[in-house]
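Handout, page 2. Input:
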Amino acid sequence: MPIETVCQIFYRSVDGYRKAEHLKYKTAEGWKGISSSELRTAVEETSMGLRALGIEKGDRVAILSENRPEWAIADLATLCAGAADVSVYATLTPQQVGYILRDSGAKVIFVSTPIMALRVDEVRSQVPTLEHIVRFEPDPVPGTMSLDELRSQGRKALAGDQDAVRRVATEVRGSDVATLIYTSGTTGDPKGVMLTHSNLTSNVVAAEKAISVLGVDDVALSFLPLAHSFERTAGHNFMLHAGATIAYAESVEKVPENMQEIRPTVMCSVPRLYEKMYARVNEKVAADPALRQKIFHWAVGVGAKVFGHRVARTKPGWLLKTEFAIADTLVFSKIKERTGGRLKLFISGGAPLAREIAEFFGAAGLLVCEGYGLTETSPVITCNRPDRLKPGTVGLPLEGVEVRIAEDGEILTRGPHVMKGYFGKPEATAEAIDPDGWFHTGDIGHLDPDGFLVITDRKKDLIVTSGGKNIAPQPIENRLKTNRYFGEVVMIGDKRKFPAALVVPNFEVLEAWAAQRGLATSGREDLVSRAAVQEHYLGLITELTPDLAQYEKIKKITVLPHEFTQETGELTPTMKVKRRVIAEKYRELIDKMYAE
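Output:
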């Protein structure tokens, strides 16, 4: 029987795998597990509790929470009640939360903490459909009920009919909307992407065929926001389907520590994590004695040859295997230990990953399989496979997924993964999906001779200089970010005479560089204003981009005294830079570069 709903994934997972630790989370006493049986009970009691609150098929239930077991329980309980959930990022402001609740018509919202409850309460009067706020934590908040209280209601209802939830879950159809995921809304109000059960399950089943190396013995560390389609599909639904244990990281900041504790075998992440890991390795090597540096570079060279054989699907000779074993003992084992020592697969998505970084991890024996997709495509369109990969590309289309390139270079896709549409916005839906069913991604790219998809840039992010030259900024930015001195780089230049850039330093590295040169400063503002620092970064940019056409080369820069953050609205929840926000926020600095 084919899998058509997330409800089927859930029941097959808890009934079939019967794990002692299906989910894991950390408390003050240490890491605790939730068994398959406990997960099924929690979901069923919560689902019946929702029905006791009046939730019916087709209703919307919102979830405002960080990653934690209760998020998964609320999600699965909502779907098994025949309703659709509305995922809300935990970083949103009360006004943004209010907009999503009003637009979706949510009747119930789950919130993680009292702070989140107060955030909803601030806009509650503006959401006429909202009837109940259910908090995950027991601390009382006026006008709300706890998850335990909701489960208690469900438990009483289940006492007279143990199969009630399973029966309703079997009535859910693949064509039913499972979730509304709201786009970031950087160019207007956010749009609710309607993904059906079959959208989500077709993506999971196709991804399993592409990445068939995961099973019941695997442990996934979940830290990307579950409100985002990437973690929802790859880190939640896919892991439930594969039978892997899902461990929830305490926070993004705690990921390195949690990796050591959990020792995951698989992780989903955005490129920012890999960029930071790569930078830290390079920082350490730069501080090592000359002999250790020489050994490190030799090991990377050996690893690159072995990884080249993997990409080419050929076998290395015995001498190279022997050299790699030595390189692994001397160098790579120490890098692997930072991930917990058991990692078999990184899954990268959300933004382009620099080829150099993918090849470095591959050389070290840490495989990064990069994929590509959008919220509107559930999200995976293409991905690299453990047995068929090509760094610098985002892989091959999943089974059942069509990809073609339009005349202007835009990537189009069609198949069971494409959304039902934007909630309440038929005009926007018609604009995104043409009459032949092709979804227009807004990304520019091409298919190479082997069928691997190569992303050039976002269509709307292409820079067109006043001289009419087209520049794709992302490949240039990604190249610069492989250097340990750079944190972020945002190229500017649309309708301008030449490209410029805003640079966010890796402050630890820059401050060490300044100290070595006796460059005393009163703080970061003072540091980045120094001519020596500006010259240093311009020199690095020139050194790292010698092959660019003259019109592509960055002529001027401004080094910023702080990092971009989600809280300031400069980064998305998946750590992508919001270019339009940056362009507006730093307009005066940008204008000054061109005025000079």
